[in-house]
Design a protein that fits this description.
about 10% strand
């Protein structure tokens, strides 16, 4: 990660995801924005290749998926994910949008051939080990935690990185709590926002590209002998697509147990902690509200601008459709965000405190650790039945 406004010889770099959405909206549209594959790029060389503009925005690094990068998915699947992200920036009017390819990027990749004008390639700039991206063989038998965040607007007071920061912290905390039972992959900072056009700076991988990518990741891991997966989301927009991924994975890999959950801090352990410590009413925790603000005040207070917080709880609610962290009602819909928020927040961010964030993070980690144990139990009990020839398993091997 490059620190905010880190100066090189000639250009000033800033972290795109440290910004608020309205700050991104105010950037000159010819500001170069660069999405790196992997990390540790030579910023001086990058600035030179871009002709040393006054400032360059670095997006969060894309962690894996490209040919030659350790954990590879089919070229067309990887390409569509990246292209959709770059198009999000172009849709916001940015004219200089690039993907920075690492050393070792396969020059025969169709991504290079089809999108050369959007790709920067610097010699000897990025070094990585496939062990960073792919669980080592020694981790077979553990639950592979796959944290997926997002880069999107969170009101005037929180940065674009909220979802990624939170779910990464929960995944790392879970792996540390139950290290013999789980292993955490690098966090993915890009998910799905079908409301992308409502507020500047919000990225969108696209639902179909998102599903194809993560199914392909499970394919790779299952082929390597891993058989327990937990897709952990920090962003509500990912949820319905993750359900589809889990269903496809269960159909394709019948001897695995692949699961997900509605966000974090929302199961029986998390819900109890929310009820115990919240001070806002229902509607105060929808998005950039009391919960997420508290998490960020605990994890990254330097990225919070509490003097700019605006509470928005005027969601168009009916008994079977309303917004809170644990959504209520039987109706499922996707109306424009513009209907319910002027600032990009659904909730009461002013109720957030660092202490609540600490308590809720502790509850979220306990909840995920409990899920890890349930995943192990599910897999082991089901595998025992299969081996014993339960039902059709006894007839078809």
């Amino acid at each position: 990660m490059v620190s905010s406004e880190l100066a090189t010889r000639k250009s000033i770099f800033f972290n795109y995801d440290d910004m608020t959405w309205d700050a991104v909206a105010g950037l000159p549209r010819n500001t170069p924005l660069v999405l790196p594959l992997g990390s540790d790029s030579d910023l001086n060389l990058l600035a030179d290749q871009l002709s040393n503009p006054s400032q360059i925005g670095l997006l969060p690094a894309f962690p894996f998926g490209w040919r030659g990068g350790g954990l590879e998915v089919p070229d067309a699947i990887f390409t569509q994910y990246i292209v959709n992200l770059l198009d999000s920036l172009r849709d916001d009017g940015f004219s200089r949008v690039y993907c920075l390819a690492p050393q070792g990027f396969d020059p025969q990749s169709s991504f290079i051939n089809s999108h050369s004008s959007s790709i920067l390639r610097l010699p000897n700039t990025t070094h990585y080990s496939s062990a960073t991206f792919l669980p080592p063989d020694s981790e077979r038998g553990k639950v592979i935690l796959i944290p997926i965040g997002h880069t999107e607007q969170h009101g005037f007071h929180l940065p674009l990185s909220v979802d990624t920061i939170i779910i990464d912290s929960i995944a790392k905390g879970t792996a540390a709590k139950v290290p013999t039972r789980s292993w955490a992959m690098p966090v993915m900072p890009y998910g799905v926002s079908t409301h992308r056009s409502s507020f500047a700076a919000t990225m969108n991988a696209g639902g179909r590209a998102f599903e194809d990518f993560w199914i392909a990741v499970i394919d790779v891991l299952a082929a390597r002998g891993f058989d327990r997966f937990y897709l952990m989301s920090g962003h509500g927009g990912n949820s319905s697509f993750l359900v589809n991924i889990v269903k496809y994975a269960g159909e394709r890999h019948r001897r695995t147990f692949c699961t997900t959950a509605w966000l974090h801090t929302s199961g029986r352990i998390g819900a109890a902690a929310l009820a115990k410590y919240r001070t806002s009413k229902i509607g105060g925790m929808g998005h950039a509200g009391e919960l997420e603000t508290s998490y960020l005040l605990h994890l990254h207070p330097d990225l919070c601008q509490m003097e700019r917080v605006v509470d928005e709880t005027d969601f168009v609610a009916t008994p079977d459709y309303y917004m809170d962290w644990i959504e209520g009602g039987s109706l499922v819909a996707n109306p424009p965000w513009d209907d319910d928020t002027k600032t990009g927040a659904y909730g009461a961010g002013s109720h957030g405190t660092a202490e609540k964030g600490r308590l809720w993070l502790e509850a979220a980690i306990n909840e995920k650790a409990d899920h890890v144990e349930q995943i192990h139990e599910q897999h082991e009990r089901r595998e025992k039945r299969r081996i014993e020839g339960y039902g059709l398993w006894g007839k078809f091997k």
